[in-house]
Amino acid sequence: MQRHLISAADLTRDDAVLILDTAEEMARVADRPIKKLPTLRGRTIVNLFFEDSTRTRISFEAAEKRLSADVINFSAKGSSVSKGESLKDTAQTLEAMGVDAVVIRHGASGAPYRLANSGWIDAAVINAGDGTHQHPTQALLDAFTMRRRLIGRDAGLGQDLSGKRITVVGDVLHSRVARSNVDLLHTLGAEVTLVAPPTLVPVGVDSWPCAVSYDLDSTLPKSDAVMMLRVQRERMNAAFFPTEREYSRRYGLDGDRMARLPEHAIVMHPGPMVRGMEITAEVADSGRCTAVEQVANGVSIRMAVLYLLLGGNEPAVTHSRTEEK
């Protein structure tokens, strides 16, 4: 493992599988009456969020506290950032406080990389989403969910996703989730197909390690997992499709389309879901939809990442459990 986690593209297959396997051990902690490990006791982690977030922020905070770390939550709103303070000055303030890790979400693509490589702060940096660039822990929790559902909880240990066919549908242009998933799933051996309106496919997608299609219906019968993306209106400054109804008709997932999937296939969504547009309530509430599982799995994945960056390079719980036997 490297010192920072900035991009899913930085992970090797062995790094990714180590994180997934460690997350399986961390998930066992959630089944205990007391959901705590002393692993990061005495370490200080700051959650530095310049953009709004619910799932990611709470997930990281839960992971940090389950590992017994001291947690500082920083929100740009109501802080000196709103008075014009720069990222550099904020980082140097945190450095003066002696933090061990910074979990950063920022609207500017590249901000976590800048923080990690600037020399402003001597701490591990974890990217919790930067602009339209990367969201590596989301890709990891998605891969973790796929491996559990498509291979099995115990059978998947040590395994990657070789041969699995993953379809990612929707607003690829503005989606850091799509970029991160394409990078990580390719590393793990999966075959990825992006499906989107031509206006929501990024320039340069030809260089990505995936296929591109504009026809959702033709890709569904051969998909092991379908990941629906949220249409990110807050990042749009133009009309990328005629109407919501037209988008939903061509690229939304409803019950009829879900029925075209193989029986074992799952439906995924990183959240928040816009019901009725990219996904219907019938699909979102079905047993094939893993949206709630993804949230739970996110805590386990983030515990694994924090442990491996700050604690050690071996699975966290396995050895102690073996010794007890």
Automatic annotation (TrEMBL):
Q: Does the keyword Transferase apply?
A: yes
**PROSITE patterns in UniProt:** CARBAMOYLTRANSFERASE
Task: Give the EC number.
Answer: 2.1.3.2
| Gene Ontology MF: a single term | amino acid binding
**Aspartate/ornithine carbamoyltransferase Asp/Orn-binding domain boundaries:** 163-309
Pathway per the UniProt entry = Pyrimidine metabolism; UMP biosynthesis via de novo pathway; (S)-dihydroorotate from bicarbonate: step 2/3
Q: Which domain of life is it from?
A: Bacteria
The record lists the catalysed reaction(s) as: carbamoyl phosphate + L-aspartate = N-carbamoyl-L-aspartate + phosphate + H(+)
Annotated residues for binding of carbamoyl phosphate: 55-56, 105, 135, 138, 271-272
Please name the GO terms of the biological process aspect recorded for this protein, alphabetically: 'de novo' pyrimidine nucleobase biosynthetic process; 'de novo' UMP biosynthetic process; amino acid metabolic process
Per UniProt, the keywords (alphabetical) are:
Pyrimidine biosynthesis, Transferase
Concerning InterPro entries, the annotation shows: Asp/Orn_carbamoyltranf_P-bd, Asp/Orn_carbamoylTrfase, Asp/Orn_carbamoylTrfase_sf, Asp_carbamoyltransf, Asp_carbamoyltransf_Asp/Orn-bd
Start and end residues of each Aspartate/ornithine carbamoyltransferase carbamoyl-P binding domain = 3-147
Q: Which GO terms describe its cellular component?
A: cytosol
Q: Does the keyword Transferase apply?
A: yes
Binding-site list for L-aspartate: 83, 176, 230
**HAMAP family named in the record:** Asp_carb_tr (MF_00001)
What is this protein's function per UniProt? Catalyzes the condensation of carbamoyl phosphate and aspartate to form carbamoyl aspartate and inorganic phosphate, the committed step in the de novo pyrimidine nucleotide biosynthesis pathway.
- Name the family the entry cites: Belongs to the aspartate/ornithine carbamoyltransferase superfamily. ATCase family.
Subunit structure, briefly? Answer: Heterododecamer (2C3:3R2) of six catalytic PyrB chains organized as two trimers (C3), and six regulatory PyrI chains organized as three dimers (R2).
| Protein name, UniProt field | Aspartate carbamoyltransferase
Q: Quote the gene name from the UniProt entry.
A: pyrB
